[in-house]
Amino acid sequence: MASYDVASSICLALVTGVTLYFITSSDSCSYVDDILSAQGLPNPPLVQKVYWAFTEGAVATALLKSGGSDALGALQSVSICASLPYTIAICFLCTSLWRALKIDQGEDDIMHGRQWATDSLDIFEGFNPCPANSVVTPRSPAMERLKSLIKATLAPFHGMYKASKGINGDGIRAKMDGILGFVWFILWIAFVGLSAKDGEWTCIGWSFYMFLVLHIT
């Protein structure tokens, strides 16, 4: 009898916790959807927030009802798959927040530093919109940016060496970074090529590619 009372108490506590968690999560999601649908208003209409809350609940109920006994597992899998790209976006958001806080504080390294004024696909723009000044680095000509993109695609280890040389000087560290980048790149190409005969080599090849990415990072 005592064990039954303990089990009932634990179940009640779990149901209460899950209910409160769902309510607070739904409230937060509804508030964000309300702000987005109101074009960024900080205090959107309450009726619209209630609408989003009922809509989200209806969608979740329909998914659980139509999926049968396997619905919860499928819903969890879909949630994980949908949130994976957002996890990558959070990494950029953290950096953006850090930079925004530094700008708010007026720190010299970001207020007076030379900022990036280019991106990997700006070769298709065909013009040079950024003027040269003491803060923003001027864009190089379009053909020069195209050559740089091709070189970085075909020989990323060369850029790794130049970057390491600029940070650590022209010593053994920079040379090792360039050599290791070359080794990872060549092994990636070699094992991916071998996968044409045996697909098992594919995993090894892409593992070396990940080594290259992690080394660059």
Task: Provide an overview of this structure.
This protein has helices at 2-37, 46-67, 71-105, 108-111, 142-154, 156-168, 172-194, 201-216. It is 75% helix and 0% strand. It is extended. Among the domains are: 2-75; 155-217. 6% of the residues are buried. The protein is built from eight helices and no strands.
What proportion of the residues form beta strands (DSSP E)?
under 5%
Estimate the mean pLDDT confidence: 80
Number of helices: 8
Largest sheet: none
Gap from first CA to last CA: 59 Å
Helix and strand pattern? HHHHHHHH
What gyration radius follows from the Cα positions, in whole Å? 26 Å
* Unreliable sequence segments: 132-136
Overall helicity: over 70%
Give the number of DSSP strands: 0
Q: What is the 3D shape?
A: extended
Name the structural class. mainly alpha
Set out the fold topology.
Layout: H1 2-37, H2 46-67, H3 71-105, H4 108-111, H5 142-154, H6 156-168, H7 172-194, H8 201-216
Helix pairs in contact: 1-2, 2-3, 5-6, 6-7, 7-8
